[in-house]
Protein backbone atom coordinates (compact mmCIF):
# COMPACT_ATOMS: atom_id res chain seq x y z
CA UNK A 1 0.00 0.00 0.00
CA UNK A 2 1.51 3.36 -1.04
CA UNK A 3 1.82 6.14 1.49
CA UNK A 4 -0.81 8.87 1.21
CA UNK A 5 0.63 11.93 -0.48
CA UNK A 6 0.50 15.34 1.15
CA UNK A 7 -1.35 17.77 -1.08
CA UNK A 8 -2.51 21.33 -1.42
CA UNK A 9 -6.27 21.69 -2.04
CA UNK A 10 -8.25 24.57 -3.52
CA UNK A 11 -12.04 24.51 -3.91
CA UNK A 12 -13.89 26.71 -6.38
CA UNK A 13 -17.56 27.46 -6.90
CA UNK A 14 -18.75 25.85 -3.67
CA UNK A 15 -20.35 27.94 -0.97
CA UNK A 16 -19.21 27.33 2.58
CA UNK A 17 -20.35 23.85 3.48
CA UNK A 18 -21.49 23.22 -0.09
CA UNK A 19 -20.89 20.16 -2.21
CA UNK A 20 -17.91 19.77 -4.51
CA UNK A 21 -18.84 17.40 -7.34
CA UNK A 22 -15.69 17.39 -9.46
CA UNK A 23 -11.98 16.97 -8.76
CA UNK A 24 -8.87 17.86 -10.72
CA UNK A 25 -5.76 16.02 -9.49
CA UNK A 26 -2.85 18.05 -10.89
CA UNK A 27 0.72 16.71 -10.74
CA UNK A 28 3.79 18.95 -10.85
CA UNK A 29 7.04 18.38 -12.70
CA UNK A 30 10.45 17.18 -11.58
CA UNK A 31 11.95 19.22 -8.75
CA UNK A 32 8.80 21.27 -8.11
CA UNK A 33 6.02 20.68 -5.60
CA UNK A 34 2.27 21.01 -5.27
CA UNK A 35 2.48 24.80 -5.02
CA UNK A 36 3.89 25.06 -8.54
CA UNK A 37 0.51 25.20 -10.28
CA UNK A 38 -1.47 26.77 -7.44
CA UNK A 39 -1.46 30.20 -9.16
CA UNK A 40 -3.05 28.78 -12.31
CA UNK A 41 -6.44 28.13 -10.71
CA UNK A 42 -7.78 31.72 -10.78
CA UNK A 43 -6.43 32.16 -14.32
CA UNK A 44 -8.44 29.28 -15.80
CA UNK A 45 -11.61 30.44 -17.59
CA UNK A 46 -13.86 27.85 -15.95
CA UNK A 47 -17.68 27.75 -16.08
CA UNK A 48 -19.16 29.81 -13.21
CA UNK A 49 -21.32 26.92 -12.02
CA UNK A 50 -18.45 24.46 -11.64
CA UNK A 51 -17.99 23.25 -8.05
CA UNK A 52 -14.59 21.61 -8.10
CA UNK A 53 -11.67 20.67 -5.91
CA UNK A 54 -8.14 21.12 -7.25
CA UNK A 55 -5.69 18.73 -5.61
CA UNK A 56 -1.98 19.47 -6.02
CA UNK A 57 -0.03 16.59 -4.44
CA UNK A 58 3.65 16.82 -3.50
CA UNK A 59 5.80 14.10 -5.07
CA UNK A 60 8.03 12.00 -2.81
CA UNK A 61 11.62 13.17 -2.42
CA UNK A 62 14.29 10.96 -3.98
CA UNK A 63 17.68 10.99 -5.69
CA UNK A 64 17.47 11.69 -9.43
CA UNK A 65 20.20 10.12 -11.55
CA UNK A 66 20.18 12.62 -14.42
CA UNK A 67 20.61 15.44 -11.89
CA UNK A 68 23.81 13.92 -10.48
CA UNK A 69 21.93 12.07 -7.78
CA UNK A 70 20.64 15.23 -6.13
CA UNK A 71 17.62 14.64 -3.91
CA UNK A 72 14.42 16.42 -4.98
CA UNK A 73 10.67 15.88 -5.41
CA UNK A 74 10.22 13.37 -8.23
CA UNK A 75 7.51 11.01 -9.40
CA UNK A 76 10.20 8.60 -10.65
CA UNK A 77 13.91 8.49 -11.42
CA UNK A 78 15.28 9.74 -14.74
CA UNK A 79 18.40 7.97 -15.95
CA UNK A 80 19.19 9.95 -19.09
CA UNK A 81 20.24 6.91 -21.12
CA UNK A 82 16.92 5.89 -22.63
CA UNK A 83 15.90 3.50 -19.87
CA UNK A 84 12.69 4.09 -17.92
CA UNK A 85 12.21 3.71 -14.18
CA UNK A 86 9.30 1.30 -14.52
CA UNK A 87 9.22 0.52 -10.81
CA UNK A 88 9.11 4.19 -9.87
CA UNK A 89 6.48 5.00 -12.49
CA UNK A 90 4.21 2.22 -11.28
CA UNK A 91 4.73 3.22 -7.65
CA UNK A 92 3.56 6.75 -8.43
CA UNK A 93 0.64 5.32 -10.38
CA UNK A 94 -0.47 3.56 -7.20
CA UNK A 95 -0.11 6.78 -5.22
CA UNK A 96 -2.41 8.58 -7.64
CA UNK A 97 -4.87 5.69 -7.55
CA UNK A 98 -5.00 6.23 -3.79
CA UNK A 99 -5.88 9.90 -4.37
CA UNK A 100 -8.65 8.90 -6.78
CA UNK A 101 -9.99 6.46 -4.19
CA UNK A 102 -9.92 9.24 -1.63
CA UNK A 103 -12.03 11.48 -3.86
CA UNK A 104 -14.52 8.67 -4.34
CA UNK A 105 -14.79 8.38 -0.58
CA UNK A 106 -15.53 12.12 -0.46
CA UNK A 107 -18.42 11.65 -2.87
CA UNK A 108 -16.87 12.52 -6.23
CA UNK A 109 -17.66 10.01 -8.97
CA UNK A 110 -14.77 8.85 -11.21
CA UNK A 111 -16.51 10.42 -14.23
CA UNK A 112 -16.06 13.77 -12.48
CA UNK A 113 -12.33 13.35 -11.90
CA UNK A 114 -9.63 14.76 -14.20
CA UNK A 115 -6.02 13.65 -13.97
CA UNK A 116 -3.70 16.47 -15.00
CA UNK A 117 0.03 16.99 -14.97
CA UNK A 118 3.05 18.83 -16.32
CA UNK A 119 6.22 17.08 -17.53
CA UNK A 120 6.85 14.14 -15.15
CA UNK A 121 3.43 14.80 -13.64
CA UNK A 122 1.82 14.57 -17.07
CA UNK A 123 3.53 11.24 -17.68
CA UNK A 124 2.04 9.87 -14.45
CA UNK A 125 -1.37 11.30 -15.35
CA UNK A 126 -1.25 9.32 -18.61
CA UNK A 127 0.17 6.22 -16.94
CA UNK A 128 -2.61 6.19 -14.35
CA UNK A 129 -5.54 7.47 -16.36
CA UNK A 130 -5.18 5.02 -19.23
CA UNK A 131 -5.14 2.10 -16.78
CA UNK A 132 -7.77 3.24 -14.29
CA UNK A 133 -10.61 0.68 -14.19
CA UNK A 134 -13.44 3.26 -14.14
CA UNK A 135 -14.19 5.97 -16.67
CA UNK A 136 -12.61 9.30 -15.77
CA UNK A 137 -13.62 12.76 -16.97
CA UNK A 138 -10.37 13.35 -18.81
CA UNK A 139 -6.57 13.35 -18.88
CA UNK A 140 -4.62 16.59 -19.21
CA UNK A 141 -0.97 16.06 -20.23
CA UNK A 142 1.20 19.16 -20.61
CA UNK A 143 4.77 19.22 -21.94
CA UNK A 144 5.13 15.50 -21.45
CA UNK A 145 5.27 12.07 -23.07
CA UNK A 146 3.73 8.62 -22.76
CA UNK A 147 5.70 6.47 -20.29
CA UNK A 148 6.01 2.69 -20.64
CA UNK A 149 4.44 3.08 -24.06
CA UNK A 150 4.95 -0.53 -25.12
CA UNK A 151 2.83 -1.75 -22.20
CA UNK A 152 -0.21 0.44 -22.84
CA UNK A 153 -1.97 -1.83 -25.34
CA UNK A 154 -1.91 -4.76 -22.91
CA UNK A 155 -2.60 -2.79 -19.74
CA UNK A 156 -5.11 -0.14 -20.85
CA UNK A 157 -8.51 -0.17 -19.21
CA UNK A 158 -11.48 -0.62 -21.56
CA UNK A 159 -13.38 1.89 -19.40
CA UNK A 160 -11.13 4.74 -20.55
CA UNK A 161 -10.76 3.88 -24.22
CA UNK A 162 -12.83 6.97 -25.06
CA UNK A 163 -11.53 9.26 -22.32
CA UNK A 164 -10.86 12.82 -23.55
CA UNK A 165 -7.11 13.50 -23.66
CA UNK A 166 -5.64 17.00 -23.95
CA UNK A 167 -1.95 17.10 -24.87
CA UNK A 168 0.00 20.34 -25.31
CA UNK A 169 3.66 21.11 -25.91
CA UNK A 170 6.03 23.96 -26.56
CA UNK A 171 7.70 24.07 -29.95
CA UNK A 172 10.92 25.30 -28.30
CA UNK A 173 11.00 22.79 -25.43
CA UNK A 174 14.66 21.88 -24.66
CA UNK A 175 13.77 19.41 -21.87
CA UNK A 176 11.28 17.13 -23.61
CA UNK A 177 11.58 17.69 -27.36
CA UNK A 178 8.41 18.32 -29.31
CA UNK A 179 9.15 15.25 -31.44
CA UNK A 180 9.05 12.97 -28.38
CA UNK A 181 5.64 14.32 -27.40
CA UNK A 182 4.37 13.98 -30.98
CA UNK A 183 5.49 10.34 -31.06
CA UNK A 184 3.49 9.76 -27.88
CA UNK A 185 0.46 11.47 -29.41
CA UNK A 186 0.69 9.29 -32.50
CA UNK A 187 1.08 6.13 -30.39
CA UNK A 188 -2.09 6.98 -28.49
CA UNK A 189 -4.01 7.74 -31.66
CA UNK A 190 -2.84 4.46 -33.19
CA UNK A 191 -4.38 2.70 -30.19
CA UNK A 192 -7.66 4.48 -30.87
CA UNK A 193 -7.53 7.30 -28.33
CA UNK A 194 -8.96 10.69 -29.25
CA UNK A 195 -6.17 13.14 -28.47
CA UNK A 196 -6.74 16.89 -28.64
CA UNK A 197 -3.31 18.27 -29.55
CA UNK A 198 -1.98 21.81 -29.11
CA UNK A 199 1.40 23.42 -29.82
CA UNK A 200 2.59 26.77 -28.50
CA UNK A 201 5.70 28.87 -29.25
CA UNK A 202 7.26 28.38 -25.81
CA UNK A 203 9.96 26.37 -23.98
CA UNK A 204 9.29 23.84 -21.17
CA UNK A 205 6.62 26.02 -19.60
CA UNK A 206 3.02 27.17 -19.82
CA UNK A 207 1.69 30.26 -21.57
CA UNK A 208 -1.52 32.35 -21.41
CA UNK A 209 -2.93 30.88 -24.62
CA UNK A 210 -2.40 27.38 -23.26
CA UNK A 211 -4.08 28.29 -19.95
CA UNK A 212 -7.10 29.57 -21.87
CA UNK A 213 -7.29 26.36 -23.92
CA UNK A 214 -6.94 24.21 -20.79
CA UNK A 215 -9.74 26.10 -19.07
CA UNK A 216 -12.03 25.68 -22.06
CA UNK A 217 -11.27 21.95 -22.22
CA UNK A 218 -11.90 21.49 -18.49
CA UNK A 219 -15.19 23.30 -18.93
CA UNK A 220 -16.19 20.82 -21.64
CA UNK A 221 -15.24 17.64 -19.80
CA UNK A 222 -16.58 18.88 -16.45
CA UNK A 223 -19.82 20.48 -17.57
CA UNK A 224 -21.37 21.76 -14.35
CA UNK A 225 -24.05 19.51 -12.92
CA UNK A 226 -27.33 21.01 -11.67
CA UNK A 227 -27.14 22.65 -8.25
CA UNK A 228 -28.07 20.34 -5.38
Short description:
Helices cover 27% and strands 21% of the residues. It is of the alpha/beta class and 228 residues long.
Mean pLDDT: 95
What radius of gyration results from the CA coordinates? 16 Å
Helix content: 25-40%
* CATH first level: Alpha Beta
Instruction: Please report which band the strand proportion falls in: under 5%, 5-15%, 15-25%, 25-35%, 35-45% or over 45%.
Output: 15-25%
Order of helices and strands: EEEEEHEHEHEHEH
Strand tally is 9
Which geometry do the CA atoms define?
globular
* Low-pLDDT residue intervals, each spanning 5 or more residues: none
Number of domain modules = 1
CATH homologous group name: Alpha/Beta hydrolase fold, catalytic domain
Strand order of the largest sheet: 1-3-2-6-7-8-9
Structural class: alpha/beta
CATH topology: Rossmann fold
Calculate the terminal CA-CA distance, rounded to whole Å: 35 Å
- Please give the CATH architecture: 3-Layer(aba) Sandwich
Number of helices: 5
Give descriptors for this structure.
228 residues, alpha/beta, Rossmann fold, two-stranded antiparallel ribbon, 5 helices, 21% strand
Explain what the structure shows.
There is one protein chain. With 228 residues, this protein is of the alpha/beta class. It has a single domain (7-221), classed as 3-Layer(aba) Sandwich (Rossmann fold). 27% of the residues lie in helices and 21% in strands. It contains five helices and nine strands, in the order βββββαβαβαβαβα. The protein has helices spanning 86-105, 120-129, 152-155, 178-190, 208-221, and strands at residues 7-12, 22-27, 52-57, 61-64, 70-73, 113-118, 138-142, 165-170, 195-200. The strands form two sheets. Strands 1-3-2-6-7-8-9 form a seven-stranded mixed beta sheet, with helices on both faces. The chain has a two-stranded antiparallel sheet with strand order 4-5. Helix 3 links the parallel strand 7 and strand 8 (165-170). Helix 1 crosses helix 2. The chain is globular, with a radius of gyration of 16 Å. It starts with 6 loop residues before the first strand and ends in a 7-residue tail after the last helix. The mean pLDDT is 95.
Amino acid sequence: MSERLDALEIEIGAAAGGTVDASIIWLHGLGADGHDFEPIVPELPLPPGLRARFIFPHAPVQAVTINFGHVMPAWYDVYGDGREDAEGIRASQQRIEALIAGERERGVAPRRIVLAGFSQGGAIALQTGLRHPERLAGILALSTYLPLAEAVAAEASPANRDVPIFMAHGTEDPVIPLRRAAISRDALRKLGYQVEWHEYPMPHAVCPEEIADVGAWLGRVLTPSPAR
